[in-house]
TrEMBL record:
Residues annotated as domain Nicotinate/nicotinamide phosphoribosyltransferase: 169-407
Pfam family of the protein (one): NAPRTase
Single GO MF annotation: nicotinate phosphoribosyltransferase activity
Limits of the Nicotinamide phosphoribosyltransferase N-terminal domain: 5-96
Protein's name according to its UniProt entry: Nicotinamide phosphoribosyltransferase
Length: 466
């Protein structure tokens, strides 16, 4: 377990010596300053609070930090941390407010605020920035996933008979092996599960159970990989596929088979389409063919056409072709742009979006950073000798890094949100409206503990404004 005293940047350990005399409170906020998307889906704070803030600081933590930082060459606020142990039993005297998780909020708005509740700990709101600003990661993953969901939803609504039933399983998380740690897989994988229910990231399933009160957040199916197919040898490719039918082909089941180990089009047209066709049909299961190489748009289109020729199609209520007995999943080269291009092609060819699902790995959980949505955490107000005053930065060399000033709250709903001034007592808007940034943490205690089901429901409510 991480030492909470050391869960910060080295330079922040000297900040307790840098504030003006008689500083009593510091007020900070976090926002997305814009980037790849104009709206963000807020998610992940509850997980960060439970994993990194829930355990009180101990005497052992303070002693270890004292020794480490002395050798490291930076100051250590031994008096402050000892006072925290005595006065607050190791619990951080701060209040964190945040927009409800699952909310979809335009960029450039305050998503979270932090203020100390004990005037002797004005240095804490800045000290905890390092841990709290890691919110950028689950928010960015959740935002990417939510925007992909809107693209898939549009394709399904235009070409499928039952879009609502199909949508949750159209984007599958393949990203566990492509991230830097198990913790990233868990946090990013949960962020994806706000919008979808398909995942192969078991770390996310377990984290959702422990951190978001969700007994089973996502689902998967039996699926082959190249090692299990090529283990049969090139001459045994057909036998490998037949084994998949024998093992998993039961009525109503779904199973996926990677089919490009040697020659994808031969596998689709001859092995699946002729030699094993009747076995697939007789099994009563749905075979999902997975291409895994080549240009995604071209490969998906040709695979779908070959499957249609061998297994046949039915016209749905919207006049689009739906494959019989088989589907396609594309997991190679998948990103928001290629998903759109694939839909454009197959719909132009007369196929329903029902025929395909997608697996996203690195582009979902790893091909992003704090600048993807321009996340920042800044102090915006300071209380000195009982009086609040604004603080801000306004660099002449980069106006995009101009920070907000004053005590801040958030009001609005749907697609309309606005960051507004609040008072210094209750932190409610000066104009009488309600602050959408609700208290979620105060003095070491979690105030809001929601399930993933609640958060999914809230996120779904924003789709009308998408």
């Amino acid at each position: 377990m991480i030492n909470p005293v050391l869960n910060t940047d080295s330079y922040k350990t000297s900040h307790f010596l840098q504030y003006p005399p008689e500083t009593q409170r510091v007020f900070a906020y976090a926002e997305s300053r814009g980037g790849a998307y104009e709206r963000t889906l807020f998610f992940g704070l509850q997980a960060i609070l439970k994993r990194e803030f829930a355990h009180p600081v101990t005497r052992r933590d303070v002693d270890e930090a004292h020794d480490v930082l002395r050798e490291h060459g930076v100051p250590f606020n031994r008096h402050g941390w000892d006072m925290l142990l005595r006065r607050h039993e190791g619990r951080l005297p701060i209040e964190i407010r945040a927009v409800p998780e699952g909310s979809v909020v335009p960029t450039h708005q305050a998503l979270m605020t932090v203020v100390n509740t004990d005037p002797d700990f004005a240095w804490l709101p800045s000290y905890v920035e390092t841990a709290l600003l890691r919110i950028w990661y689950p928010v960015t993953v959740a935002t990417i996933s939510w925007h992909v969901r809107q693209r898939i939803r549009a394709a399904l609504e235009a070409t499928a008979d039952d879009p609502a039933a199909e949508l949750p399983f159209k984007l599958h998380d393949f990203g566990a092996r492509g991230v830097s740690s198990e913790a990233s897989a868990a946090l990013g994988g949960m962020a994806h599960l706000v919008s979808f229910k398909g995942t192969d990231t078991l770390s996310a399933i377990m984290a959702a159970r422990r951190l978001y009160n969700e007994p089973m957040a996502g689902f998967s199916i039996p699926a082959a990989e190249h090692s299990t197919i090529t283990a049969w040898g090139r001459d045994g490719e057909e036998a490998a596929y037949a084994n998949m039918i024998a093992r998993f082909g039961v009525p109503g089941a779904t199973f996926a088979v990677v089919s490009d180990s040697y020659d994808l089009y031969h596998a689709v047209d001859d092995l699946w389409g002729r030699h094993l066709r009747q076995q697939v049909i007789d099994s009563g299961a749905t075979l999902v063919v997975r291409p895994d190489s080549g240009d995604p748009v071209t490969v998906v289109a040709k695979t779908m056409a070959l499957l249609a020729g061998r297994f046949g199609t039915d016209l749905n209520g919207k006049g689009y072709r739906v494959l019989r007995n088989v589907r396609v999943i594309q997991g190679d080269g998948v990103n928001p742009q290629s998903i759109g291009a694939i839909f454009d092609r197959i719909v132009a060819d007369g196929f329903s979006a029902s025929n395909i699902a997608f697996g996203m790995g690195g582009a979902l959980l790893q091909r992003l950073d704090r600048d993807t949505l321009g996340f920042a955490y800044k102090a915006s107000a300071i209380e000195i000798a009982g009086a609040w005053r604004d603080i801000f930065k306004d660099p002449a060399t980069d106006s995009a890094k101009r920070s907000k000033r004053g005590l801040l709250g958030l009001v609005g709903e749907g697609a309309r949100w606005e960051t507004v001034p609040v008072d210094g007592a209750r932190f409610e808007p000066l104009d009488g409206r309600r602050n959408a940034l609700r208290p979620v943490w105060r003095d070491g205690r979690l105030l809001v503990d929601e399930s993933l089901t609640q958060i999914r429901r809230r996120a779904a409510g924003f789709e009308a404004a998408a």
